[in-house]
Specification:
By secondary structure, the protein is an alpha/beta fold. The protein is built from 6 helices and 13 strands. The chain binds 1-O-pyrophosphono-5-O-phosphono-alpha-D-ribofuranose, uracil and magnesium ion (MG). Belongs to the UPRTase family.
């Protein structure tokens, strides 16, 4: 597994505002959207393209366009939904599949409550969207879903990751042939005793979609 921490002052600036307890839900949603677009630029560096002939007003030429089959974008509900528009801004013709997953806050085990993905993902590049990689249980389960259906290349975009979650994910993916990359704005210090990322930003789903404050 490859971990890519995007090192850019604008990413760090926006992330700092996002973390702040004083940032309200509308601002949190807007910053998430902006951050995802910046991360998506890095995450799509190896998106597959194929040659494409066009004519400019001056001359014929050969450029590229997205290869077929088109990439699949998979937001993990609920919090990953807040990342979808920022991703689709860069990949407007991608297909979108959905996974609904929730972590039990006592056991920290992830379970799946909704799934709407194409049956056959053979040869597909997949982009998984989830703001938080904490224990890594949710992302590991999502990646298994996709590879079980034939996905052959997976990139996850996470706003924040915890070192423990990265290590767990790496261990959980042992033996998997499919390349997996995680692109993130920051790797934080650790998890606390409740499985929350420290310093983190709190509960991403609540901050995106919970009661406004
Ligand atoms: O790495 P893990 O320890 O599995 O935790 C990370 C998961 O927890 C959060 O979702 P949550 O379960 O809170 O659901 P929500 O998006 O509906 O708030 C987050 O969006 C991740 O999906
Ligand atoms: O810090 C964390 C950990 C899991 N889920 C969140 O939303 N935040
Ligand atoms: Mg949550």
């Amino acid at each position: 597994m490859r971990l890519h921490v995007v090192d850019h002052p604008l990413v760090s600036h926006k992330l700092t505002v996002l973390r702040d307890t004083g940032t309200d839900s509308p601002t949190f949603r807007r910053l998430t959207d902006e951050l995802v677009t910046l991360l998506a630029y890095e995450a799509t560096r190896e998106v597959r393209v194929e040659p494409h002939k066009i004519s400019t007003p001056v001359a014929p030429t050969t450029g590229v366009h997205l290869a077929s089959p088109k990439p699949l974008v998979v937001p993990i509900l609920r919090a990953g939904l807040g990342m979808l528009d920022g991703m689709m801004r860069l990949l407007p013709t991608a297909e979108v599949g959905f996974l609904g997953m929730v972590r039990n806050e006592e056991t920290l085990e992830a379970s799946t409550y909704a799934e709407r993905l194409p049956e056959d993902l053979s040869g597909r590049q997949c982009y998984v969207l989830d703001p938080m990689l904490a224990t890594g249980g949710t992302l590991a389960a999502a990646i298994r879903f996709l590879t079980d259906r034939g996905a052959d290349d997976i990139t996850a975009i996470c706003l924040l990751v915890a070192p423990e979650g990265v290590a767990n994910l790496e261990a959980g993916l042992q033996g998997l042939e499919v390349p997996v990359t995680v692109v993130t704005a920051a790797q934080d210090e650790r998890l606390n005793e409740h499985g929350y990322i420290v310093p983190g930003l709190g509960d991403a789903g609540d901050r995106l979609y919970g009661l406004a404050h």
